[in-house]
Every structure is written in C-alpha cells, then in structure tokens.
Amino acid sequence: MKTRITELLGIRHPIMQGGMHYVGFAELAAAVSNAGGLGVITGLTQKTPELLAKEIARCHDMTDQPFGVNLTFLPAFTSPPYPEYIQAIIEGGVKVVETAGRSPQAYMETFKSAGIKVIHKCTSVRHALKAEQIGCDAVSVDGFECGGHPGEDDVPNFILLPLAAEKLTIPFLASGGMADGRSLVAALAMGADGINMGTRFIATQEAPVHAKVKQAIVNATELDTTLIMRAINNTERVMVNQGVKKLQAIEKEKGEALDIKDIIEQVAGIYPKVMIDGDVESGAWSCGMVAGLIHDVPTCQALIDRIMLQAEQLIRQRLVLALN
Ligand SMILES: Cc1cc2nc3c(=O)[nH]c(=O)nc-3n(C[C@H](O)[C@H](O)[C@H](O)COP(=O)(O)O)c2cc1C
Prior knowledge:
Shape: globular
Largest sheet: 8 strands, parallel
Bound molecules: flavin mononucleotide
Strand order of the largest sheet: 1-8-7-6-5-4-3-2
Number of strands: 10
Oligomer: single chain
Strand content: 5-15%
C-alpha cells in the first residue's frame, strides 16, 4: 500500500509504532521495521544520551530498514538534556523523530539541517496546525481513546481525524484505538495516511516486556482503562489495577487541590517494576481502550501482515461490494 506516509518515511506499510516508555527498546523497533512498518525507540527510556546512542547502534545491528526515535517533551520531574539526546540521534544516523508533549519548535532547525523528518504527536487540531506551521513533516493525531496522554479536550478519533483532514496539508497518522485492518481502512477513509499503534504493539512476541504485561492486555476489556491526573492537567489513560485504585482514592480525597507529590508513589518509578519485573498491579502504566480488541500475542510480522491483508480484503470485498 502506498500513502503519503509510506512515501515520506520510505516504508512498505503505513503503520508506525509509537514511542513507549520501557517498551520501545531496539528489539521492538527493529521487529516493527523489519515487518515493513516504522519502529520507534523511546529516547528517554535510555537514562543518558550515551545509552541512547548504544540503543540506536543495537537497532542498526538488528535491521537495515528505517526506524525512528521518540523524544517526549513532557513535564518531567527533572528536565533531561534534550540537545545531547538530539546529538545522539543525529550521530546515530536516525532519520525520523517522533516528538510528543511540548512543541519541538526550539529544535526544528537542528532536526531539519540534519535531514531528519519530524512527526509531532498531538491531541488536537489546533496543536496539529501549529506543528504544520513550525515545519513538522507529519503529525500523529492521538484521539481520546489512546493509551498515554490524550490531552484535556476528550475528542475521540471519529471526530478528530476528519477535522484534522479538513484543516491539515501535511500527512497525518491516526493514533489511539488502532488495532487491525478495520482500523487502518477507517483511518484512511477519514483522511489519515496511516496508523500509529501503541498498546497493540506491546502484546507482540518481540516487545521486550514481562509476559504478565502482555497477558494483562489480552485479558483486559475496553472498560479496563481509566483516566488519572486530570486535576493537574496531565491526564493519562492507564490500565486499571490496585495501584491505580489507590491513586484514584487519593485524587478523590484531594480534589482540585491535588499535587503530584500526593501520588508520587503510584506514578514515579513504576515502569521498570511493571515492564521488567511484571508487577502489573504496582501503579500507573499507560494502556489504551483498544486493549478490548487485543486477543493474542503475535509476532510483529504476523500482526502487520494480518493488518494489511484484512485492510485489502475490506477494501476489495466489503467496500467495493457495498457499491453494487
Ligand atoms: C505503555 C505506554 C507507554 C507510552 N509511553 C509514551 C512515551 O514515552 N512517549 C510518547 O510520546 N507516547 C507514549 N505512549 C503513547 C503511544 O506512543 C501512542 O501514542 C498511544 O499508545 C496510541 O494509542 P493506543 O495505545 O490506543 O494505540 C505510550 C503508550 C503506552 C501504551
């Protein structure tokens, strides 16, 4: 399948794997890229720019296909040395960066002069337009259903994607709630040029996370995620678990007076506990509503092949036949 996204990124299928903290290691990024999508290493999971450089080198050893690095500009407890991370990306020969959170404006010139394509992830049309205006090559539009940070507008993809198509000139990916060939065809119908998936890629053979995380996603229904941190304007969609229930009890008690310090135990340092140790009940970890559509743990190759086959069948059979 050829779209503006496959052309822009030099990939075979219009499917991208979004950056995911403690999930987006070289193993997953390489597997997605080898299967014809765009795999992405999560920059800040690597504790230093030197470690990111090593992770990029490991990924080059596992694939000769293009892959990207995610750089998240989120309110962090301590601000990472972004220019040095960017230097590691440039020196590592990576040609695609997925930015998220705050605007990448301050670094656009550096990215552009290194020939790097920038895909900014946004949760609203106004932020997508701003990204277009500052020179991003594409955007990833994250709907309310997404795992991670859906923003504060609560607009689901059935509204957000057609609106993005009406307003944007640059290519865009539909992100949030994407799982299969039906998602891809629907995204294309709404004007997107491809899909970005997070949660779906965690439940794959190559995702280097504890088997209990994959099983928790397979077991979850569409009702098993919830929103946290709304009172501090840092809303996150996470899997419901014991730690999150505790966190939400604190949120209820504190109301609008909630401070990040009140819930630090349930949000700080949780990812290694969950993703490496398999302690899936320990606290907040991002997960999309799409978990309800995930029933297995295939290889990335099998998953992407299946998505492309289902999309093609839907277009050639269901959609074309509907015209008769
Ligand atoms: C466990 C997990 C961790 C994530 N970490 C990040 C991150 O560090 N930076 C980022 O930009 N997005 C992050 N995301 C968001 C994904 O890149 C992607 O936008 C989102 O998962 C799409 O929604 P979906 O899960 O419904 O596919 C994360 C998502 C998950 C599920």
